[in-house]
Amino acid sequence: xxxxLFLSFIFLFYGNQTSFSQTEEKxxxxxxxxxxxPLLDAPFMQYAAQMAYNKRTGQxxxxxxxxxxxxxxxxxxxPSMSQVLAIxxxxxxxxxxxxxxxxxxxxxxxxxxxxxxxxxxxNATAGVVDYLxxxxxxxxxxxxxxxxxxxxxxxxxxxxxxxxxxxxxxGDGTPGGSVTQVSDEDLIRFKAExxxxxxxxxxxGIEGQxxxxxxxxxxxxxxxxxxxNVVMNILITKQAVDYVRQFQQSDxxxxxxxxxxxxxxxxxxxxxxxxxxxxxxxxxxxxxxxTFRGQHPQGQGINRAIKRSQLSEEEDAYLVKMxxxxxxxxxxxxxxxxxxIRFNDQLRFNFAVRHILTSFGYDLGGxxxxxxxxxxxxxxxxxxxxxxxxxxxxxxxxxxxxxNLGSKALDMTARVMAWVQPENEGFYASKGQTGGxxxxxxxxxxxxxxxxxAEAEGKTRGWVWANPYLQPNFSLxxxxxxxxxx
Length: 486
What we know:
single chain; 486 residues; alpha+beta; 10-stranded antiparallel sheet; two-stranded antiparallel sheet; 12 helices; globular
């Protein structure tokens, strides 16, 4: 890790030199902040209100919910994946903005040496603040984001749950990275009615972490934000990689015994335990009833956490393979602070390799970010792997499309996806199922710094990274965007 951090700072200096033409401004560091305030996301808000009603009334998720206006407000406790990503990025982007302002004042990057020292210092201090935000504040940071990505799958089922990071605001519990207050009855029904969605919910935490890294990379490339987020990139990726590989540690099963000893009360138990042994267990056993896990060691309820010793030889080998493939997520110049690589005066680019666990296995692919003559594009390449088959998909995003609404100038983003994925997201499916997604987002300026935006997104059945719906869905989102730039 120390060697990787050292190399990252070397690339910060030498890599960034490829991003600028040889002018007097080539060492400038942008002081720019983009804050996304997502207010509405429908129909997810309806599911969140139904979940809030079930929590308030103590009902299980199989009963019809009739949420009140208060339940709709309480539903904001469980924001959508899109909202979660925006909030967490806002928190850390604010840190990066003030770090850039601070170090531009203290150490003006007027030449190559000072540019290097500026970036070294900004990334170091930003990394310290990021760490404090992530593991001390917790709420709205990566730990909260991880747990809220888990909760999205539960909320879509109407299942009551609680994010333990909220204990930072008070309460009798200990703040931490757990989703608790989930009933066995709800998990039994979830596995019986939507096993592929349950599997996706188990893996969704690190799905959110990688989406967060991707969104920061897009801001740095498309909007020239110069966020000093090298330490965050490395630490959040390392945590995800280590988490998938955690089951190989010699004390893994013993750690589950400790977890079970703490969880004497049902409401205190994490809904999954350590994420990835349950993920691979239920991925390979979609038809096995949830009750087959057996009785909890404390004698009450179902034994939710899965030990390595409970995995079959095939399941164990598959999870070892997933852990090894996770290292591919380090492959990107942006991991080392290189936000853009200039090919010539008209073309610059960046790239990243992605390995994301899914409801049916995994998605192995990557992104190619392109700016050609000022036009911003993203090309995403996807290969969808289940037990024995590989299917393919492609993603195209165009940012900065200009249009007019009366006398107002609109800034628009369009995104399309097309894919063949395993039929019904099945791990053992031999047939493919075609599908796709279309998304349009438009920004309407209210002032020099404020925009209001609206977004429409429609998709067929299928898994999409950082989209909670496996079923066909049409969503509408609205919010405010603050863009500060010196």
